[in-house]
Design goal:
The protein is α/β, with parallel strands linked by helices and about 230 residues long. The protein contains 9 helices and 10 strands. Strands 2-1-6-5-8 form a 5-stranded parallel beta sheet, with helices on both faces. It has a 3-stranded mixed beta sheet with strand order 3-4-7. A hairpin with a 2-residue loop joins strand 9 and strand 10. The protein starts with a strand and ends with a helix. About 20% of the residues are buried. Bound molecules: ligand 21W. Ligand 21W binds next to strand 5.
């Protein structure tokens, strides 16, 4: 059974998003019909005769602010008769983590709004009750990359997206831990041999080694993952 999720990305730079979403794992899953993702140009919805979508901020300050009208009309038009969860990618939002990704992955539909320039008029965000999500405490130039990160993370959970089921089940085996180190050919590289156990063919020992290594790597690199409640 295919749990088909529909995602609409609202942006002033649809080609930026479309380009990423056409390649590799996500591109393949879209072509195969497992994902329904569309990018919409907010500028197509402006009623301004010069196709403007932004203006100076009231009260001054540098940079332009995206106007309510095109964002509102674009959102309402794309939503249609449905009542999808509306997400605004924003540095002020709730910080994205894997448990929020899993929650969003259960939705049938998402509309994701990307801001650009200095921001978006607060009134359209409040009137449509956009939920705000950030990708972390650092600054990027617009909401497009954050929207792609959210889309990518959520898409991985849909049926038919990951090429091998293994990657998915393995991830849950070591839930909350970092990955064990990986090796490929050659067996010796610049004088360093691959850990003996991995070429032993002893499956129980290999499993034990992977679990131990995951724990060791997590203790060394991210001890917070072992102590913080998730
Ligand atoms: C960066 C927009 C800085 C606005 C009020 C008065 C989306 C993002 C973004 C951006 C400002 C995310 C202001 C982590 C991010 C995003 C573009 C500053 C100035 N506001 N997650 N003056 N980091 N960034 N606004 O940057 O749109 S999710």
């Amino acid at each position: 059974m295919v749990i088909n999720m529909k995602i609409d990305i609202l942006t002033l730079f649809p080609e930026m998003c479309e380009n990423y979403l056409s390649a590799s794992i996500i591109g393949r899953a879209r072509k195969a019909g497992f994902l329904d993702i569309n990018c919409h140009n907010i500028r197509d919805y402006t009623t301004d005769k010069h196709r403007r979508v932004d203006d100076k901020a009231y009260g001054g300050g540098t940079g332009m602010v995206m106007q309510s009208q095109p964002v509102y009309d674009c959102t309402v038009s794309v939503a249609g008769n449905e009542n999808p969860r509306l997400i605004f990618m924003s540095p002020q939002g709730k910080v994205l983590n894997q448990s929020l990704v899993k929650e969003l992955a259960k939705e049938e539909r998402l509309i994701i709004l990307c801001g650009h320039y200095e921001g978006v008029d607060r009134r359209v965000l409040d009137q449509l009750s956009f939920e705000e999500i950030s990708i972390g405490d650092y600054v990027v130039t617009g909401g497009e990359l954050p929207a792609l990160i959210l889309t990518d993370a959520v898409a991985r959970f849909q049926d038919g997206v990951l090429p091998n089921e293994d990657a998915f089940t393995e991830e849950s085996h070591y839930n909350g831990l970092l990955e064990y180190p990986q090796y490929t050919r050659p067996e010796v590289w610049r004088g360093e041999k691959v850990p003996e156990v991995l070429i032993s063919g002893h499956h129980a020992n290999i499993e034990k080694w992977k679990k131990e290594q995951s724990l060791k790597v997590t203790e060394e690199k991210r001890p917070d993952l072992l102590t913080d409640n998730k």
